[in-house]
Amino acid sequence: MTHHNRYAKYGYIFCIPFTIAFLIFSLYPTLYTAVIGFTDLKGIGTTEIHFLKDPFLNFKTILASPTFQTAFKNTIKMWVLNFIPQLTLALLLAAWFTDRRFKVPGEGVFKVLFYMPNIITAATIAILFNALFGYPMGPVNDILTRIGIFAKPHNFLVNKNVAQGIVIFIQTWMWYGYTMIILISGVLGINPEIFEAAEVDGANGWQTFWMITLPNIKTILLYTLVTSLIGGLNMFDIPKLFLMGGPDNATLTTGVFIYNQAFSGAYMYNRAAAASMIMFVIIVLASVVLFWLLRDRDEEAAEKQKKKMEKEMRRAYKAELKAKGAEK
Fold it and tell me: What's the pTM?
């Protein structure tokens, strides 16, 4: 047994706790959820579960539900409108913090401040923003009436667009610092010699960022996009805790819809499971499309060229063997 193999077993031993936890608390619930989407399971204390004659009835009911359609549209809208400014801001900050031309004073303090919203609990942030936009007494109303923008207090949280805008802002504010840290790690992984060569060639900061930094962090951008897509389509805590999906379902997301199906009213676990599986399939398909769109085309072309050359070499070798056989 080699020195490497003697210690390899310890790696497997340390993986056992995670594997067991994953199987019990993640894989089993996921599979169970997939199964009950085809059943009549609902209500607290139900012991008997029967598969439906039409196995896709729950899925059809959910897809035809106007409430689910509204929740899905809201989810897509709020994710897109928070991800675009979030990624833009994170990219600009990452470029700023990693620029070799100047050193940002107090860089560490800035990074901590930008990242801090991500470590504050969602419940705390939801309560904070509910209080900020409170009616009739709240800091935002107080400031706007004092400076003369409003003659009297305004109830912001009954306006659909305002409510959605606040949720979008909260999601951007909470996650741009996390995205920034991920992008900074990607930029720091680029070979410094490339930046040095660009500097010698007289490239300015914008050219360096656009021509060197962005192409070299494509993999990190893909990771950020896919994880944001997964998180965005599962958006639950802020819309639920901030306004319970209101006003008039304006901040209702698919996550809140699934929660309401499972734990409100009739406790329709089967329909909640069906909605969960629908979102699971949508997320998987969207992730596959993103991977395909952002694939490394140069590497793919090089791989195809390599295979083509290998094929031609094999063909030439066979032709040579055939010619030698004919000579004999």
Answer: 0.84
Beta bridge partners of 51: 39
Residue pair 62/274 in contact by the 8 Å Cβ criterion: yes
Q: Is the pLDDT of residue 8 over 80?
A: no
Measured CA to CA, the distance from residue 249 to residue 148 in angstroms comes to 31
How far is it, in rounded angstroms, from Cα 148 to Cα 78?
31
User: Helix or strand or coil: residue 217?
Assistant: coil
Query: Residue 155 and residue 242: Cα distance in Å, rounded?
Result: 15
Instruction: Express each pLDDT in 155-168 by its tens digit.
Output: 989 999 999 999 99
CA 326 to chain centre: 63
- Position 104 confidence tier, pLDDT thresholds 50, 70, 90: confident
Residues 94 and 179: their CA atoms lie apart, in Å, by 9
Whether the pLDDT of residue 73 is over 80: the answer is yes
3-state secondary structure of 194: helix
d(CA 323, CA 143): 91
Neighbours of 289 (CB within 10 A): 11
Half-sphere exposure of 195 (CA within 13 A, CB side): 17
**Contact of 217 with 190, CB cutoff 8 Å:** yes
Given a cut of 70, whether residue 37 has pLDDT beyond it is yes
DSSP label at residue 204: -
Q: Model confidence over 119-129: pLDDT tens digits?
A: 999 989 999 99
* % of the chain with per-residue pLDDT over 90: 48
**64-73 contact pairs (CB < 8 A, 24+):** 67/249, 67/252, 67/257, 68/254, 68/257, 68/275, 70/249, 70/252, 71/249, 71/252, 71/253, 71/254, 71/256, 71/257, 72/254
| N residues, the chain | 328
